[in-house]
Write a structure and sequence with these properties.
Strand order of the largest sheet: 1-2-3-4-5-6-7
Shape: globular
Radius of gyration: 20 Å
Strand content: 15-25%
Number of strands: 12
Largest sheet: 7 strands, mixed
Order of helices and strands: HHEEEEHEHEHEEEEEHEHHH
Number of helices: 9
């Protein structure tokens, strides 16, 4: 591929995620010192070096596979990744009793007038744990909760935050998907996690339906909400904090972790990635996976382009759907987290979409 997805300086023979592609970062007891130094650099320099960004992304407790996994029980930990921007990381796994459904990432931004929360976890219990984690960082009121997509591990804690005075915002198209699908999600989570873990959990009401780009100033800190259309799913959104350079990228970015593409519009997704890359964010927080950098936006585009090209070739060659998953493998991305359980599904849905397109031309 060309344009934004061309990786300067990377040999085409080096797979995505290969240790040769990125200089290794030591994960040892120096992390505590690195965290203090990174905090000081934020205030003194206002711009992080690439090494500092990678070190920060690997700090214990930040997020997912590149960090120590979130504990499956006990209090949640909020890690400050930039001044007044915090992340509560989820495990890189499907929701299960063993992880209490703590698989999606939650972030929050603290402003002079209060707190904005990005996503809310899997259950009312997790929403309450998120509120408790926020209280360890600030006593300012929780003003707003944005639900970035209709994912079962992101929406069901919202009512606990709403009961504390927050207003729930969600894109109107994402809300429509939630209303259509998430009743079934709730029943499945109750089966997986148990009635006790899911006690009091319900589909959240949405106080304000988002549509279009806007500046959110409710917490006294201007945050840019970006409407990305269908992209990864109907009603895809992202949130950019110009002060810290942090981008909460929702389901649009893959940080070395394959995500479902079933509901996506690949062309809109690529346009969204180009748009987000133009912001030159310092840190990128996906809804699932580890904290990344602007380079991960380009890597996401390369995965999507490779998926489209490979499956398109299979369809043109007359390979059956039954054989497509085995023949649709992408070795360059096989080291990414969740490749095995998710990539085959992406091949399946891409095949069906491309096959349909042959009959609608």
């Amino acid at each position: 591929t060309t344009g934004i997805w061309h990786s300067k300086g990377r040999s085409p023979s080096v797979p995505e995620g290969d240790p040769k592609a990125v200089p290794p970062i030591r994960a040892d007891s120096a992390f505590a010192t690195a965290r203090r130094l990174a905090r000081a650099r934020f205030a003194a320099v206002g711009r992080l070096s690439a090494a500092a960004l990678l070190t920060l992304a690997l700090l214990p407790g930040v997020i997912g596979t590149a960090a120590r996994p979130a504990r499956a029980e006990g209090p949640l930990t909020a890690t400050e990744i930039a001044p007044d921007v915090f992340v509560i990381g989820g495990q890189s796994a499907d929701p299960a009793a063993s992880n209490e459904g703590r698989t999606g990432n939650v972030a929050f931004v603290v402003g002079p007038a209060g707190v904005l929360v990005w996503n809310s976890g899997t259950s009312r219990r997790q929403g309450e744990a998120i509120a408790a984690a926020i209280r360890t960082r600030t006593d300012r009121p929780i003003r707003t909760v944005i639900l970035s997509q209709a994912a079962q591990d992101l929406v069901f804690g919202a009512t606990a935050l709403r009961d504390r005075g927050a207003r729930i915002l969600m894109h109107r198209d994402a809300e429509a998907t939630m209303r259509t699908r998430c009743g079934g999600c709730l029943a499945e989570l109750q089966r997986l996690l148990g009635d006790d873990a899911m006690a009091g959990t319900e589909l959240p009401p949405v106080d304000e339906r988002l549509d279009g780009n806007r500046t959110l100033a409710v917490i006294g800190r201007d945050l840019q909400l970006l409407d990305l259309g269908q992209a990864a799913a109907p009603g895809s959104v992202a949130l950019h904090d110009p002060v810290s350079g942090v981008l909460l990228a929702g389901g649009v970015v893959m940080v070395r972790q394959v995500v479902e593409t079933r509901d996506s519009d690949p062309a809109a997704w690529q346009r969204a990635l180009e748009r987000l890359s133009a912001l030159a964010p310092r840190l990128v927080v996906p809804d699932h996976g580890s904290v990344g950098t602007v380079a991960d936006l380009a890597a996401s585009g390369r995965y999507l382009a490779a998926l489209e090209a490979r499956v398109g070739q299979l369809v043109r060659d007359g390979v059956s759907l039954a054989d497509a998953s085995a023949q649709g493998r992408l070795p360059a991305f096989a080291s990414w987290s969740r490749y095995e359980p998710v990539h085959g599904h992406n091949v399946h849905h891409t095949y069906l979409r491309l096959e349909r397109s042959l009959f609608t031309r």
